[in-house]
Amino acid sequence: MNKKNLYGIVAILVVAATVLSACGPKATPTPAASTEVEVFSWWVGPGEADGLAAMVKVFNAQYPNIQFINAAVAGGAGTNAKAVLATRLAANDPPDSWQAHAGQETIANYVAAGQVLPLDDLFKSTGLDKVLPATLLPLISQNGHPYSVPVNIHRSNVLWYNPKVLAAAGVTANPKTDFATLDAFFAVCDQIKAAGKICLSLGAPWTAVHLFENIMIGTIGAQKWSGLWSTPPTTDWAGADVTAGIANFAKALSYTNADASTMTDWQPASKLVSDGDAAFNIMGDWAYGYFANAAPNGLALTPHTDFDWAVAPGTYGVFNFLSDSFVLPVGAKHPDATLDWLTVAASRPGQEAFNPLKGSICARTDCNQALFSEYSQDAAKDWTANVVVGSLFHGVVAAPAWAASITTAVGLFQADTTKTADFQAALVAACKSDGTCK
Ligand code: GAL
Fold this sequence. Notes:
- The longest helix is centred in the first third of the chain and has 25 residues, at about 5-25.
- It contains 17 helices and 15 strands.
- The protein has a 5-stranded mixed β-sheet, with helices on both faces. The chain has a 4-stranded mixed β-sheet with strand order 14-7-12-15, with helices on both faces. The protein has a 4-stranded mixed β-sheet with strand order 9-10-8-11.
- The protein starts with a helix and ends with a helix.
- It has 2 domains: about 5-120 and about 135-150 and about 325-365, D-Maltodextrin-Binding Protein, domain 2, CATH 3.40.190; about 155-320 and about 390-435, D-Maltodextrin-Binding Protein, domain 2 (3-Layer(aba) Sandwich).
- It has helices at about 5-25, 50-60, 80-90, 105-110, 120-125, 130, 165-170, 180-195, 205-230, 240-255, 265-275, 285-290, 335-345, 350-360, 375-385, 400-415, 420-435, and strands spanning about 35-40, 65-70, 95-100, 140, 145, 150, 150-155, 160, 200, 280-285, 310, 320, 325, 360, 385-390.
- Bound molecules: beta-D-galactopyranose.
- Beta-D-galactopyranose binds next to loops.
């Protein structure tokens, strides 16, 4: 071997050693968290936090190298969180993923503003496109591209009640079968009131809008409710149906606790029922998690004895739904970790961990029903058998600005329920300023 060949071999060995040492660290597993994912929601505290914690546990087990940063902001229905999120988005500081309701809240807001990315590849790689209900896919899609990962289906139109309060007031009507009309419900409210109890508990201001949507559906029915939101509306906002819904809403408000506007959130209103101070509360089925989950986030109550449920008065056979979903933002700081989070959110193990504690049913159609409570198993049956309509306050049917105008109008009406014509005029104006009404 001459000197030149020797130099050549040495040079090759040096290069090979350099390449091998560069590959070295990747070949051995690195145990420490290598990146993070910041996930934004409003699931904090009673009835809200347990489901998220269970899904995060699944995530941590599957992705031990990614640190999950819980950026949740307290406040039911996202009243505070959405404001914080808007500020962050305006400052170009998006969390890696955030909670967004399926429907107009996602499409007319985040998608229209170009703040989120399409998820076609993730839907294909996880098979989510094959297991989502037909009702849901269009609500998170634009031009055939999905923009968020739905984790659940919640029901808005649930009447929660305390059977002991009903019995003590001598009520023989069964809420599960005898409240086909709001009048039947109001007749029972008179009995409850005479017995010295609150008939219908109400919480923080947004819960009045939650009540409004369910009283309106209970008055005008599913088809006319959906007609309010079609373009152009096939139900006249200025017409007699809406007037009748407003009259029933005023009547329902007359049976609520006088201190509702001072309540901090939805949980205190639920607690009035479980404490036996009130007979009924109309709230979404996240209340199930609050009633039934273990302490500290739940009240650990016994179904049918300490609390019970029925479909909200006048809405039998109707499923007023909403769905929580998660997005991939434009400019995510950790896009790969976000995709990992979304993969867990899309997965059956993720949804089977989350939903039984959240009070919701899976967005996926293939979850194991045996993991769920009797309440949720009933809800799952109704979801497929009932007429499905979309929630107003929880982002399905109206763009956020439209929903905000209605919320303002409901607040003013709540302060003076004699102003029915003003309220209806404000509803008409809100539809016009959205552009849906001409
Ligand atoms: C809804 C949300 C639910 C639940 C509820 C109360 O808007 O979709 O998951 O958190 O608010 O905060």
